[in-house]
Amino acid sequence: DAPVFDIKLLDLEKAKKIWPKRLAIEKDLSQLLRHMPGLDPGASEKLLAYYFADSDLTGWRQRLNQAILAKQAKQQQKAKEVA
Question: How many CA atoms lie within 13 A of 56 on its CB side?
């Protein structure tokens, strides 16, 4: 059997339309991390470290977690309204 790979792509096309760029980055990365719930914490840290190089990872991590939690709460609220 051939190996199976789960590939995720990060589409930064929206970054051109959103100002400031920080909001585009938060939106794209929070969406990526939200769709990869089984991602090993070490792997997500490595992704953030490569993506942000020498930036303030703690601040970015906090903003991304807040964005993920807000989106999840919004989805849960929609699910309750539908049910």
Answer: 7
